[in-house]
Amino acid sequence: MKKLKDDVWFVAAEMAPLVKVGGLGDVVGSLPKELIKFGMSVKVVIPSYKRLRFSDFIQLEELLPPGKVMFGEIPFDFGIRKARTKSGIPLILVEQEHFFGRDDIYGSHGGASAYKDNLWRYSLLAHASVYAMKMLGAPRIVHTHDWSGGIVPAVIRQVFGDEPKSRPGIILTIHNLGYQGVYPIDDFYDIGIDYRFNSSLAYEHFGTFNALKGGMLLSDVVTTVSPTYAREITGQDMGFGLDGELRRIRDNGRLYGILNGIDEEYWDPSTDKFLPERLKGKPKVKGKETYTLRDYGRWKEFKEKNKTALFSEIGVKPSSNGQGSRFPLLGVVSRLTEEKGIDLFIDSLFNWWDFPFCAVILGSGKDVIEKKAVYLSNQFKDRVYVKINSYDEAFAHKIYAASDVFVMPSRTEPCGLSQMISMRYGDVVIAGNTGGLHDTISDITIDEEKANGILIKHMDINGILWAMQKINKLFHSGVHWKRLVINSVNKDFDWSLPALKYKELYDKIKS
Ligand code: ADP
Predict the structure, then answer these.
(1) Which residue from 150, 297, 322, 428 lies 20 to 30 Å from 60 (Cα-Cα)?
(2) pTM value?
(3) 23 C-alpha to ligand 1 centroid (Å)
(4) Which atom of ligand 1 is nearest to the CA of 436?
(5) Ligand 1: which atom is nearest the Cα of residue 335?
């Protein structure tokens, strides 16, 4: 019987809600669902991590005959199991105890201390996914992600050939150019790919092995997760050493920026099961400006109730600023890294001892930033609460719902999902003027009527302090604040539009 071709296979290291470290997980969790709604047949290949095996979110299905790959002289066996998420998305799980039977995904501290053999782990994922394609029939398109998906294009080419007609079309999405999978060049010979790929037109980069570079150059199309980031990464400042290659890809018409969406059914303040209080009244209508200033009361009630519940959960008492009005609550849900500017945010609070805010910070990451955050909360026990935890979904939802202001002072931000989620929950965002933040936030200093937040042009402590002073005034300004909130909750971040753009791109690569 002739095998029917699937439209798209995703090959990815994360897929929310099964395994998620950051935005990549959210995208692989959401985009396939939307593509299936268009009638496309989609499968997602992911490693069978330890935490995934006992997940309530998947149903295991048939086990296929095992495969084997040679890494240098060492053979590695792997299993391929079909499965399905509870919401019906077909999965291919790659089982390999030595590589994937571990507690973490990329390593401890949300990947900040990466496993030393990550190149081997994700090379095995690449070989296993192509092995599964041979067994089940290759799809029309393979959509792979980040450096961890960077070996996939090489394995596809060596198994199916370089000719576009003989192999699936290949698309690689860069979720973060800062992580490239750089290893000693000798590691090249340990991951089972042809020696011809040891070239500056593939994985070799100034004497090192660069998984993302090769992945980009061997794909038909490269996308990244916002139009502004697609522009930024072709410049020297933000090209992380690959700007030359990215300019070439752009000039060949192969670089695209498609803004991510969020799963608006999952991130829905009127049904969110993690919240002590849900939004009452009319829910958001897709593609419509659902709310007017008259709806502000319901949003205020939603926020007040969630704020009271959060304060009582964490034992922080809402204070007043001497004039009898409340302090705005600043929320952060983020990796605690320099890239995210959290160091600057903490420093700015230290530099403003009488700051008229409360703050709740959730995240984990760099040791020094974690320590500084904890120190800050010890200094201001009644105003700042810090939870060091790389993944606390329930607490993240509660912060989004309770915060008046969401703070995202990123120095660089490919797309950013947190700002979109927080807007959906009625927060006003303070953010860096970069990447996807630039594409999703309308700055108050440009057009007050349309604004939904503040973009900081010069990301330093003074920039953050300037924005916080401004937001504090606005918070107490009545109609200005109402308009900011209503503009935020009216924003549309549904996945259907980006999914349509990806579908068009798939059709362009290979119809
Ligand atoms: P990143 O650069 O980390 O991918 P994004 O803003 O694109 O940043 O996506 C971050 C996602 O991870 C959001 O959905 C956010 O809610 C979630 N997140 C970040 N840190 C945590 C945490 N400690 N617990 C739960 N969710 C988190």
Answers:
(1) 150
(2) 0.92
(3) 6
(4) 7
(5) 20
CA distance 396 to 402: 10
What pLDDT digit, counting tens, does each position of 182-223 carry? 999 999 999 999 999 999 999 999 999 999 999 999 999 999
**Token representation of residue 233:** 């990464």
pLDDT tens, residue by residue, 251-307: 999 999 999 999 898 899 999 999 999 999 888 888 888 999 999 999 999 999 999
Q: Which residues of 14-29 are buried (b: 16+ CB within 10 A; e: fewer)?
A: bbbbbbbbbbbbbbbb
Establish whether residue 394 lines the binding site of ligand 1, counting it when its CB lies within 6 angstroms of any ligand atom.
Answer: no
Q: Which residues, other chains included, contact 384 with Cβ-Cβ below 8 Å and sequence gap of 6+?
A: 316, 349, 358, 359, 360, 361, 376, 377
Domains of the chain: 5-261+496-509 (3.40.50.2000), 293-489 (3.40.50.2000)
Q: What is d(CA 391, CA 364) in angstroms, rounded to the nearest whole number?
A: 8
Question: How many A from CA of 261 to the centre of ligand 1?
Answer: 14
- Residues 474/444, Cβ–Cβ less than 8 Å: yes
**Alpha helices (H) in 252-386, listed in sequence order:** 296-314, 342-350, 367-379
Which atom belonging to ligand 1 lies closest to the Cα atom of 20?
A: 12
- Ligand 1 centroid to Cα of residue 334, in Å, is 5
Peptide bond into 17 cis (omega under 30): yes
Q: Give the largest Cα separation in the chain, rounded.
A: 78
CA separation for the pair 193, 294 (Å, rounded): 61
Q: Is 392 in the pocket of ligand 1 (CB under 6 A)?
A: yes
Nearest CA to ligand 1 atom 17: 22
Q: Are 436 and 416 in contact (CB under 8 A)?
A: yes
